[in-house]
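Marked as duplicate of an earlier ticket. Keeping the data here for the record.
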Amino acid sequence: MQTGIDRRQVILITTGIFLTVLIVWCVYLFIFGDSQVSVGTGSKTKIDLIGTWRVSPVVPTIHIRFISEREAVLLEESSETKLYISEDAEGLQLRRRGEETPSGYFLFREFKAGVWQGLWGDDLVVLKRVSDGN
């Protein structure tokens, strides 16, 4: 005849308490959590892109003139190409018309005061601000 609580009951009670606390915490986060987490340019530290930026160390020299939050112009030595800007949660994509693969991709977390590291084609590059405005 057993009068006390055995080991199996202690384990079951402890597991039940743990799962109850976990479920209550998840419900609390679901109800009161901030569903509008700011990421990227929608955050408080919005990046002002408008102006001309140099893509380096690409040869020949390439410049990108950001016209608005959705459009830019790629300035090469002998031509100008319109670029379309799109954002995702992690970064900014620069895409030529009709292309599925972005020409450039820059992570928001890599932006530092007028200098922005990212990818241009298959190359790791740095965007450096040359001038503000158009």
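See parent ticket for discussion. The chain has two domains: 1-33, 40-132.
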